[in-house]
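Why show two proteins at once? Because comparison is the fastest way to build intuition. When a single record is shown, students tend to memorize it. When two are placed side by side, the eye starts asking what differs. So, the first record is below.
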Amino acid sequence: MRNRIAIALAGALLGVAALGGVVQATPSAGLTSTTIATGRLDEVHLAVKTGRWKVELETKGQSDVTVVENRVAPGGTFGWHSHPGPSIIVVKSGTITFYDGDDPQCAPEVVTAGKAVIDNGNHVHIGRNEGTVDVVVIVTRLLPAGAAPRVDQPDPGNCGF
């Protein structure tokens, strides 16, 4: 009986020690996400030029395209995270502030209603509502087919919040 208790205690201690080394992801807070549409896209090889304006888009393999409406309450946050592909973000209302996990200065990128930004993907970042009204952002993601749209990440420690 003593051996079983000793083995159980040793196992519990090893489990606690293993978890102690795990860095916890930062959760979102005050965030409501609504998926508007999702579709599967075959490979794309596209180049369009209209006057001086030009766009090129090329993918290898199938992609998932997802459009999401995110609503962030005042003081709310997306939590530190990354995406395995690019996202086009349009601020529908309010003001959202983004921070990059690789920026040692933790410089804010403030984006107001009517503006759009592109998240290139594969980097750690956070979006925060530092204002007094809800922020609504419409996000269109282009991701590898079947990939998780969001990867929770630990706080990189470069910002003081």
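Second record. Ask yourself what differs from the first in the token line.
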Amino acid sequence: MKVFLSTDMEGTAGVVDWQQCVGDGPEAQAGRKLLLAEVNAAIEGAIAGGATQIVVNDSHSTMRNLPADQLAGQASYVSGSHKPLYMMQGLDDSFDAVLFISYHGSVGAPAGLSHTYSPRAVVEARIDGTVTGEAGINALVAAHYGVPVVLVTGDRCACEESAALIPGIHQAVVKEHVSRLAAHSMHPESARELIRERARSAVAAATSAAPPPLDPGVLELSVRTTDIAEAASWVRGVDQSGPRELRIHGQTRLATYRAFCAAILLTRSVAENV
């Protein structure tokens, strides 16, 4: 059984501040160790559930947060900051299951370090009218390839938002928000035990799981300024439906996701300067 694992970082137990997530300082190094341990717990659980091949996509910040030689299960590693499919690079229809590890709540949600892809640009994202974070957007790729998303781990908000779009998804809630920069986390060892067990159960049941039911999979975005919206509309498949509103609906769900990623990359410089 072939398993794809997309890992962010802000949903890791014990991670509550941007200094733990960005850069190479001592707090960031400590945060990466916590993240690695949760990723490895998910890998170990997936193997116990029947996985025979695991691909890890490092999806956080510069996307090179994990020491490749310390990944469990001889997992292969997709890393680096220029990836056409971003957080889902490497997924195709040869996989049997997708895991989302250390995910966080959407921008505007009551969750620690909440954001949706581009915190300076995106104010809210919706799929077929349902507010979503990065998990729901990324699930468009899994839906396109017909691969079930069977597990999400992270803060409670991330798990609940994922379940709203992916019924039956297994969840491992490892922390509760206190504020955007504070959380009540499980002890890291307990969090890893929970992730390991939920990954085992999720992968063991993957053969009976369905792909995410995102149909038609229309992605709508509210962005921070009219300049951001106007620039995003230059991307094929992205329509400006209001002064700060975007509607993305490609010919396929993969096309929708690719148009979204292109819009995010294109508007990054605009968002940073307005």
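One difference worth noting in the second protein: The chain has a mean pLDDT of 96.
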